[in-house]
Amino acid sequence: MPRSVNHVASKARRKAIMKHAKGYYGRRKNVWTVAKNAVEKGWQYAYEGRKQKKRNFRSLWITRINAGARQHGMSYSQFMGLVNKSEMELNRKVLADLAMNHPDAFKAVVEAVKK
Fold this sequence. Notes:
By secondary structure, this protein is mainly alpha-helical.
């Protein structure tokens, strides 16, 4: 009995991978084995990048809060310690935005935390 091969599904699978390889350089865009490897590696980088993005933003927020706190004579750790002690419901993202774009509001937060 001859072997049955589902060409419809396998062609669709290859077509989907090749669609993702569109815009790649050289053989990565039109040779199946090279394109498959390139696309899968790209997906690995994308997965890891989604994790790194969270780290990078947190680091950016900490840097901005630190700069804002130092303008008011405090270090980042002192400021965040007082924020946590005062049970203020502001996260780092909001505090960084205040420090960067609304210095008066950030100053009010610093004064409220110092009390």
